[in-house]
Amino acid sequence: MGSNNLLPGFRLKKCRQAAVYHALLRQPLSIGYTERIINLMAMGRLHLIEFEDQRWFPAFLRTYMTDFLQFLSNKTGMFKPIIPMLQKQLAKSQTKTIVDLGSGSGGALLGLSKDLTQKIPQLNIRLTDFYPNTDAMDRINSGNVRLSYENRPIDAKNVPAELHGLRTLFLSFHHFKPTDARLILQDALDSKNPIAIFEAQERSLISILAMLFSPVTVWLTTPFIRPFSLGRILFTYFLPLVPVFVLWDGVVSALRTYSVAEMSRLVAGLKGKEQFEWSIGKIASGPSKILYLRGL
């Protein structure tokens, strides 16, 4: 299929995306898997289905998946390079509160909180989610008083006024379609709350190939994820739904991830965007890159 027939995924209608996606899957068998992946990436952003996003998706499976992501991000320290960014943004905005959106099982801030509170002793971190993880909430709220988890659903597009501070999204911005993604940025702008968005994957061949190995990572790390759960063992090794869903959602996450240019277009469409200073780019984290979008 010629590139002239491919519009930026950012602008494709849902039916158009589906049609082109299926057309690519029906390419001749002579085309290798690598070439198919490259063709998919050439389409631009694809907002395909992630199981974790669906209201009907079993909560316990969502918990096992977010537990894995939280364990992986914290044990690998993938987000440590962005600590100076958060420090600078907190200082410039004169706030000592982080409001994390889409926290899942606790997310990256569980691992970053120790380093951040050592550097900023008065820092308060408030975790939130549209689907609050009650088990994680109970563990977190019974521990460090500087780290808390909201016990109500929080919509990232319409954050309650009392949750004031630096808004962060780790590994979650790609879950939102462009219209909703822009609403998240607009809500932060209108409420005069700084925002920082970080994604550890991107729409690249390396990132997608890495996702293909995610089931192996799930199998290797599951025995070390706490709290221990027989259900997690059952649905990882004997009825391996967790690695299958992690694989699918991982590949789709990469295909959904906004590029630097697409994030720039989101910012360009905001009303009153000049009230914030915006920075968009990538920062090295080991062999990979962290995509970021920051507004202050």
Task: Describe it.
The protein has helices at 14-25, 33-42, 59-76, 83-93, 108-119, 134-141, 178-190, 205-212, 214-221, 230-238, 241-256, 260-268; strands at 97-101, 124-129, 147-153, 166-170, 195-199, 278-285, 288-295. With 296 residues, the chain is of the alpha/beta class. Among the domains are: 3-42, no CATH class; 82-200 and 264-295, Vaccinia Virus protein VP39 (Rossmann fold, 3-Layer(aba) Sandwich), CATH 3.40.50.150. Helix 3 packs across helix 5 (108-119), helix 8 packs antiparallel against helix 11 and helix 9 (214-221) crosses helix 11 (241-256).
Mean pLDDT: 88
CATH superfamily of one domain: Vaccinia Virus protein VP39
CATH topology name of one domain: Rossmann fold
What global shape is seen? globular
Query: Strand share of the residues?
Result: 5-15%
Task: Give the number of DSSP strands.
Answer: 7
Lateral arrangement of strands in the main beta sheet: 3-2-1-4-5-7-6
Low-confidence parts: 1-14
CATH class of one domain reads Alpha Beta
The helical percent reads: 40-55%
Topology summary:
Blueprint: H1 14-25, H2 33-42, H3 59-76, H4 83-93, E1 97-101, H5 108-119, E2 124-129, H6 134-141, E3 147-153, E4 166-170, H7 178-190, E5 195-199, H8 205-212, H9 214-221, H10 230-238, H11 241-256, H12 260-268, E6 278-285, E7 288-295
Parallel strand pairs: 1-2, 1-4, 2-3, 4-5
Antiparallel strand pairs: 5-7, 6-7
Helix pairs in contact: 3-5, 8-11, 9-11
Q: In a few lines, what is going on in this structure?
A:
This protein has 296 residues and is α/β, with parallel strands linked by helices. It has helices at 14-25, 33-42, 59-76, 83-93, 108-119, 134-141, 178-190, 205-212, 214-221, 230-238, 241-256, 260-268, and strands at residues 97-101, 124-129, 147-153, 166-170, 195-199, 278-285, 288-295.
